Structure formats: C-alpha cells, structure tokens
Fold this protein.
Amino acid sequence: MSHDFHERVENSIKNPKNMGEMADADAIGTVGSPGCGDMVRMWLKYKSENGKRIIDKATFQSFGCETAIAAASLATELIRGKTPEEAAQMSGTDLAADLGPLPPTKIHCTQLVEDALRSALSGPQADPPPQASEAGSPASLMDSLNPKSHDASGV
C-alpha cells in the first residue's frame, strides 16, 4: 500500500464526514454481509431545487475496513447537490477518487459504497425507515449484526 494512500485513508478516518443514522431519511440502502463483516448502510435525504429532486444530505454507517469507511465518508460529500440520476452514474472509483489509486485488495471497498448508494437510490424507500424496526426490520447497521434470537441479556 502506498504511503499517500495510507495517509489519505488515515486522515479520512480521523475526521469522517456524515457518519451515523438519519432518522428522517427519504431512502436507505444496505449492502454487505454480517457473515464476512463488510457492510455499508447509506441514508439519503432529498430536497427540491429549481424543480429537480436533489440529494440534500447523505449519511452512512460501515462495518468493515478503514478504506470502506473513508470511501463512504467521501461519497456522502460528493453526492450532495446531485440528482439521483447523476449520483447513480458515479462508480465506486468516482466516489473514492480523493483517496487516490487503490491497491487491488481495496477495490471491493469502493464497490460496497457504490452498491449501498445504488440500493438507496433504487426507490423512494429502499429499506423500511428506522422506526420500522419494531415490525422486524433492523433500524441500524448494528441491529443487522445482532441476531433477534438473543434476549436483552445476550443469551
């Protein structure tokens, strides 16, 4: 891994942008597998500007390597102000361009971020909203990792 790449990821991890759940999101997308440990969930909030629907705010949660967190942080900044159609045209490479060239072993991290964005963009509400967790759907990425068979004591 190049020193520049490592330094860019480290700087992004120290000051991540837009990390966390968004209670009033218009769309939510989740990708990954709790089994392998790499997961990204992205929340989108839209607004109307000049008669177009644009992304006003995006947040994320990530369980995975530092590169996935850094790429998701960068992506949430890059898509702000774009229409859903413009955001959908962006590749994982576009979304993480500020990290510089990625080592081959880290390309999957940007793919996770791209897939989470596409999942959120796939409909007005790609996943149930957070308050739907009472109906059986996980509200947060952490909820996705906690099996429902455990009671409050964790047994």
User: Anything to note?
Assistant: The helical segments are 3-14, 66-78, 84-88, 92-95, 107-121, 141-145. The beta strands are 27-32, 39-49, 52-63. Confidence is low (pLDDT under 50) at residues 126-137, 147-155.
